[in-house]
Amino acid sequence: MNPLNLPLKILFPIFSLLFLFHCTNSSQILSGFSATPQNSLQSDFQPLLTDISGNFSLGFLKIQQFSLLLCIMHLPGSITEPIWSANSDHLARWSSTHLSFNDTLVLSDSRSSPIWSINGDGDRVVLLSTGNLQLLRESGNKESPFVVWQSFDHPTDTLMQGQNFTASMNLVSSLSITDTSKGKYSMRLNEDFLGLYADFHGNKEQLYWSRKATQEKARIKPGLGPIYARLEPRGFLAMYQTETSLVDVLAFESFQFEAGLRKLRLEPDGNLRAFYWNNSKWVIDFEAITDPCQLPSFCGPYGLCNNGGCSCLNNQTLYTPDWWCYTGQSEDLCNGLNGFRVLRREKVELPFKQLMDQGTVGSLEECEDSCERNCSCWGAMYNNISRVCYSVMYPVQTLVEVGSEGRFGYVKVGLERERGERNRVAEVVLLVVACVVLVGVGAFGVWSWWHRKKQAGFDGLLQEGLAPGSYRDLKAVSGSVELCNR
Ligand SMILES: *[C@@H]1O[C@H](CO)[C@@H](O)[C@H](O)[C@H]1NC(C)=O
Ligand SMILES: *[C@@H]1O[C@H](CO)[C@@H](O)[C@H](O)[C@H]1NC(C)=O
Ligand SMILES: *[C@@H]1O[C@H](CO)[C@@H](O)[C@H](O)[C@H]1NC(C)=O
Ligand SMILES: *[C@@H]1O[C@H](CO)[C@@H](O)[C@H](O)[C@H]1NC(C)=O
Ligand SMILES: *[C@@H]1O[C@H](CO)[C@@H](O)[C@H](O)[C@H]1NC(C)=O
Ligand SMILES: *[C@@H]1O[C@H](CO)[C@@H](O)[C@H](O)[C@H]1NC(C)=O
Ligand SMILES: *[C@@H]1O[C@H](CO)[C@@H](O)[C@H](O)[C@H]1NC(C)=O
């Protein structure tokens, strides 16, 4: 046996361990890879796999201190806005999650079954400089390994330049800027149009924006298969039927300008926006809905929008961006348990009314009546000039205030929702009372501590052992302040 072998045998594992430790942020993920979140991070994003350009990275994003999202970031841009995420519908725990690779990539929690995994087996995972994460399997041809899975086929809320968006995919908005769980809006391709849909009741989707693919000279040939869309480097969203038959061009403001990188995002407010990277920031160059009042729920449920400003449909409730006009679950008017109250308001219209269910009726009474009798109907809007009656088949969201006479709104308010409202008021009142009491007790504690300290002097205080008790009182004060600030 070569005597050099022994030290090598000992040193090699040590070196490879060091190597592994240093290269947890590597250019590819191979079998045996395992990563856990680190607590000593400067930023909330911990990169694990970075593409060769250094522009994109797959990593752990810390969300609200304790949760973990496995996602891809565009590093020069904002590192709070992922371009793709694995587990947005099921956040993991920062403290007990790990990512491992052995045939496939698995995100798991020590206590439960895998939170997320790729369905398929491969040899390695790579991140391309387009932002596409791929699971590859070696094939006979070494130049082109077989792509088992790619993140570009499973978009979340963002479409990157060069990514194909097909009829079997959808973009789903996230709930808010800080909450990445699934929101109410989605984008889908249909036979001949691209549509944005809102889901306010879990059973009926409402189309609120659409783009028909007939703007180009070429017509859609029936039977040629579904169309697909792609964000092109020269500033437009293209719809194709085949690679050689372009059926639509949705041009952005920077049309024909070759930017370095582009993305299209379905935003938490339901708007679809395109951006290009100008080497220092993402610049918006397209917005599907330019008037905020035409967004599906700009001011929330039962809100009223006027030139981008918000108030509430009933004049008694004060609009606040946190509470909106109503909160709580939207209940079902058809289960027969809860009644409803009617709210009427003049000079209001529905946003995107041309896309709503509608019919022509003889009078306002007829319009209201048809909604009154149908428990799936949450509201009706009537225009007494055109005599068109629009129905809203989900809990009414934001209406648009208009100047013209003769636009009538009829809105059902579920009584359970109102009860929820009253409970909330009760909750707030209780909280305030509790805070006042706690502050009072705390103040008394401080006062008595101060009083006794003055009487006994510092030595006496220590002897009497009063300090711990007064500390508790002080804690109660600070605790109550926290409670009030919530
Ligand atoms: C990173 O992105 C910028 C802007 O798009 C681009 O100019 C640059 O070439 C990219 N980096 C690399 C190494 O490709
Ligand atoms: C990886 O997978 C192979 C085959 O499924 C299995 O034999 C092996 O034990 C696994 N290795 C680890 C570290 O889990
Ligand atoms: C998009 O689709 C075209 C045509 O099918 C294909 O050539 C191209 O490789 C696809 N791009 C990606 C990133 O999958
Ligand atoms: C990118 O846009 C920002 C803000 O609009 C601007 O200040 C900056 O100069 C732009 N950068 C380049 C390289 O154009
Ligand atoms: C609210 O106030 C407006 C304007 O003052 C009025 O036109 C409307 O009828 C009121 N609506 C309700 C529901 O009280
Ligand atoms: C309620 O209205 C919807 C949509 O117009 C309709 O499909 C449904 O049949 C109606 N239900 C009843 C009970 O009239
Ligand atoms: C429409 O309603 C307005 C406001 O109530 C009223 O002044 C007008 O006469 C109505 N027009 C018709 C054609 O009924």
TrEMBL record:
Residues 334-415 form the Apple domain. The keyword Transmembrane helix applies. GO terms for biological process: recognition of pollen. PROSITE patterns: PAN. Residues 1-26 form the signal peptide. The chain crosses the membrane at residues 428-450. Keywords: Disulfide bond, Membrane, Signal, Transmembrane, Transmembrane helix. Involved in sporophytic self-incompatibility system (the inability of flowering plants to achieve self-fertilization). This is Apple domain-containing protein. It comes from Amborella trichopoda.
